[in-house]
Amino acid sequence: MKENFNEAVEMTFIFEGVHNIDTGGDTKYGIARLFHPEITDAQWAVFSKADAEVIYDKGYWNKLNCDSLPRPLDIIVFDTAVNPGPGECKILLSQCGGNISTLITLRENYYKHLAAVHPDKFGKDLKGWLNRCETIRKRYCGGQNAS
Fold first, then answer.
1. Is residue 41 part of a domain?
2. Is 147 contained in some domain?
3. Strand order in the sheet with 25-28
4. Per-residue 3-state assignment (H helix, E strand, C coil) for 104-116
5. CA 146 – CA 78 distance, rounded (Å)
6. Residue 142's pLDDT is what?
């Protein structure tokens, strides 16, 4: 539901931070410049939280039709679209049957697979990814794993 967009974005900002270099390269507010070549050098120099929100609305929230999903599935789908990405999110969403705990478990398994297959590239990210999933699980599922 659209009224949940702000909550979803604020939660994602907590996980993503302001500015870092990660596997997506130069990243601000969770927006990896590598995946957004439309952002010019001049725009990137002054890229703000508000700029990230515009991209999140169009390229993530709307792309995954989060307005049509119930709360908190919409929030979790949005965060999954941000990391590990919209394409993988669609796959995981199609596999979870609308169950948020299952979606989180599928996401954890995806991260574990990435780290196992590409340890040099993703091994260092695994703990943070799993912590992110656990935080989401505690907040929206009462800490319960999928059965």
1. yes
2. no
3. 19-22, 25-28, 31-32
4. HHHHHHHHHHHHH
5. 19
6. 82
pLDDT at 147 over 50: no
Q: Between 5-16 and 126-141, two packed helices, what is the crossing angle to 10 degrees? A: 150
Residue 115: give the domain boundaries. Answer: 2-141
pTM recorded for the entire structure: 0.91
Q: What is the pLDDT of residues 15-25, one digit of tens each?
A: 998 988 877 78
The three-state secondary structure class of 26 is strand
**Dihedral sign, Cα of residue 59, residue 73, residue 97, residue 92:** positive
Q: What are φ and ψ of residue 141, in 5° steps?
A: -125, 10
To 10 degrees, the CA torsion angle through 101, 29, 88, 80? 10
What SS3 state is found at 137? Answer: helix
Q: Is residue 134 part of a domain?
A: yes
Round to the nearest angstrom and report the end-to-end CA distance of the chain: 27
Tokens representing 101 are 């705990």
| Helix residue ranges per DSSP H, the chain | 5-16, 41-45, 49-56, 73-82, 86-96, 100-117, 119-122, 126-141
Q: Looking at residue 98, what is its pLDDT?
A: 94
Tally of structural domains, the chain: 1
